[in-house]
Amino acid sequence: MPMTLHINGETHQVDADPRTPLLWILRDKLQLTGTKYGCGESFCGACTVHLDGKPVTACRIKLKSAVGKQITTIEGLNSRVGEQVKRSWLELNVAQCGYCQSGQIMAATALLERNPSPADEDINEALEENICRCGTYLRIRQAIKHAAQKLA
Amino acid sequence: MFARIDQSKRGQDMTRRDVLKLISATGMGLTLGVYLPVSSAAAMDSAMKANGSLEPNAFVRITPDNRVTVIIKHLEMGQGTFTGLATLVAEELDADWSQIVAEPAPADVKRYNNLLWGPMQGTGGSTAIANAYEQMRKAGAAAKMMLVAAAAKQWAVDTGQIAIHQGVVHHKASDKQATFGQLAALAAAMPMPQPEEITLKDPKDFKLIGKQSLPRKDVGKEDGSAIFTQDIQLPGMLTAVITHPPRFGAKLKTVDASQTLAEQGVVDVVTIPDGIAVVAEDFWSAQSARKKLNIEWDESQAFNKSSKELQADYMELAKKPGLVARQDGDTGAALEKASQVLESHYSFPFLAHAAMEPMNCVAKVTQEGCEIWNGEQLQTPDQTNIAQALGIKPEQVKINMLYAGGSFGRRANPMSDYVIEAVLIAKTRPGTPVKLVWTREEDTQGGYYRPMYYHKLRAGLDMDGNPVAWEQRIVGQSILKNTPFEGFLVKDGIDATSVEGASTLPYSIPNIHVDVHNVELPVPVLWLRSVGHTHTAFSTEVFIDELARTAKQDPVAYRMRLLKGHPRLQGVLKLAAEKAGWGSPPPKGRGRGVALQESFSSFAAQVAEVSITEDKEIKVERVVCAIDCGLAINPDIIKAQMEGSIAFGLGPALMSAITFKQGKVVENNFDGYEVLTMDKMPEVEVHIVPSSAPPTGVGEPGVPPIAPAVANALSALTGQRFHQLPLKLS
């Protein structure tokens, strides 16, 4: 039976096993491939999306629990904070391979939405589970602070 | 990777003539490597006229929309090659940076050969900038000459009166100007400059090369629009997941796939030599259905050892002499005469590359041949291996090179492992594209690890504490024996990737002996970012520190004296030490340590400051890095590569290890195979040595010094000596 999802301000009808992780609905059914598969177990944060504004790993959210929620993916990240975070990312040349960066940006935006001037510890706590194998952590931290300043 | 090929063909003073010789030696009938072979130049010529664009060579395309497309022959995996190579073209072309677009090259060894590897297309060994520096500049310069010629013709003026500034062609006297796009069609009709006519800029006139920060050209990484292999969607495409044997060397006995085949979305179950693939309409259907496979493995011949047993085996082997990789003087006699003899040993576990994008490949097999979509790092070997697997010709293999979500060497497998898997699965469904997706678990447990190693070192000091003898024995698997690369990098049984950094010890010691034991195991191994230096830098730099401490000498001063004849290593050591405040006491509660390494023709030194937390955990607080990579093309990318290399190297230094228990890999995801996280990232300061030497790579050379620098800092702080990675406090 098709289920209704609210993603990036649009409504989608999805017909799939209700236990399917949201990640694979986004990627394989809706072609929203900006949300990445990295580990499937919520260890790496590459699939971070916003569910009612809160950062969650889409690999651990089942389709049925996403119904009725407002889902935001990297493709639909167009809030004032989100746009600034993306600009700061570009300005500081944060991304290297880029595969984890959608998740990093989603986590960083959620952090700035609730804490407009995060300290290093706040950034560590919010992004501790967003792994970057290229090691862009320093620039992620700088970009979050850069965005915070621009938004202030 | 491939450091040896590199070394044999390139010196610090490579001249233009050498480049010409190198190219002609490959015998491909190219002119300067930037032009098309004659046969296809004519075809290209008519194509240019048809669409009004200028395509003077295999690397540059200027279209009427004023866009300059730079065709990039190397894989963009985060190291910044799209930006780096585009900078070289844009510089000589005097283009505006905003009009430059980077595009991945197709697989075509005739045009897109790695000039340091002979006739082979591929990326690795930190060679992209080094091999393409002149090639890409000449490509840009040739295009510029044709644009100037076109403007001169159109305005009926002399070419000498025409200048180009930020993408605008200008004739001062008449104040006429035009964009590249406006001139493209006419420029395409101009004669192609002969190689000897192409002149390159004097470096003092560089406007882009060496400038601090250019926006990167690997775009779409901030808004999810960048397409990786994982993101490829093709009409009718199916997705496959694969189950590998539980132990290396195990064979499939029987498989009952009936329950899997009955699951919704499942299309087929395919057995290939390396495992059993479930092919389905989408990933989740395949992934959930494969749990219902009923598989029996024959593990009678399988690997069944534990890491601890291997360690004991390696230590036993290390008692006997190995194959000699370097012999200077007579270490035995010198050790007898030494006033003090020190001995140490170092152990290194297997390591997984653990790129963020698990291995994957899209393949389509048809009657005409095979097409793949892949974060493609070794075009020529992959074409050869695919052709062999399918019984077709290498030129029938079309490769679409996509961004790679990291690689660290994993996508440069001379055996083409996961690529061949994808192709063999796709072969069973001719005409249908199949995306093979390894899960994180397969990626972690699938082998092709940085091998496990054991090193034993012995040194003799004279009365003044100077080293008079140095012996090093390395025990571990050869990465390249029994691979297609054996001919290049294995000589007399000695794999250069096992001993590099040890056999090339830079310290001036009269008697040096390095030997190696090649262990044979069924565990597949592969190079990992900075390859042999991942372990040799640790053992040599920790041991030299121990010698300095025993001699009661300052570790920087001790190294500096022993580095006679290595001015560039001395240069980075001096710079890192100065910037780190070496000589002044470290902040309270911190220890300071230094390490250096030459790798891939670049030179790096790092000073680490460490502390110990209340929970008795190692905390790396600050790292000061000095890098000499010749002329700095993109300083911001060099800096980013150093920052990233330090983060990458801190994984194995502090937490990463693949361990075997009765032949099975223990770790299977990021919970077990731990890597560096944000909270553990130190402050990093990067200092680039100003240089006009030919540019060399930066993808790998920042990795080797970090682990020994941290170990040496911990020793300075605690007095403890470290004999293994990851580091553990006693």
Structure notes:
The complex is a heterodimer of chains A (152) and B (730). Chain A has helices at 22-29, 63-66, 80-91, 101-114, 120-127, 137-151, and strands at 3-7, 10-14, 48-51, 54-57, 70-72. In chain A, helix 3 crosses helix 6 and helix 4 (101-114) packs across helix 5 (120-127). Chain A is built from 6 helices and 5 strands; from the N terminus they run E-E-H-E-E-H-E-H-H-H-H. Chain A folds into 2 domains: 3-76, Ubiquitin-like (UB roll), CATH 3.10.20.30; 80-151, [2Fe-2S]-binding domain (DNA polymerase, domain 1, Orthogonal Bundle). The termini of chain A are far apart. Chain B is 31% helix and 23% strand. In chain B, helix 6 crosses helix 7, helix 17 (533-550) runs parallel beside helix 21 and helix 20 (635-654) crosses helix 21. Classes of the chains: A alpha+beta (152), B alpha+beta (730). At the A-B interface, helix 1, helix 3, helix 4, helix 5 and helix 6 of A face helix 9 and helix 20 of B.
Overall number of domains of chain A: 2
The CATH superfamily of the largest domain in chain A bears the name: Beta-grasp domain
Describe the sheet with the most strands of chain A: 5 strands, mixed
CATH architecture of the largest domain in chain A: Roll
Any idea what the shape of chain A is? globular
Coarse shape of chain B: globular
Report the strand count of chain A: 5
